[in-house]
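Changelog-adjacent note: as of this version, every example in the card shows the full chain rather than a window. The one below runs 108 residues end to end.
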Amino acid sequence: MDTMPLEYKLVIIFIVAGILNLLLKRNRNWVLGYRSTRCLKSHDRFAYANRIFGWGLIILGLMYLGTLVYLAHGGDELTGWESAFIIVGYLALLFILIEYKLSKAFKE
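Full-length structure tokens:
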């Protein structure tokens, strides 16, 4: 029985989590979502940050899928460390972007 590789499951998780963040961006009690001291100061900030975070997760999922397909087409695979480096690096850049956009949008 052939099972789906973990990397493709991660793509699905990122895309679904991104869509859920976009749909439930006004609900601070939702389990998923971006939270920081700056973003939790008001509902508007929370919604703004989670709109960026939701789109960022969708883009991460699609970019990661593109990387996997490109490498598979060439016969290569990502190691666990390479996958972790890509995902953690992208999320770190996304968090920095969200904090920057929050500080500019809400004049801090």
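Structural remarks: The chain has three helices and no strands.
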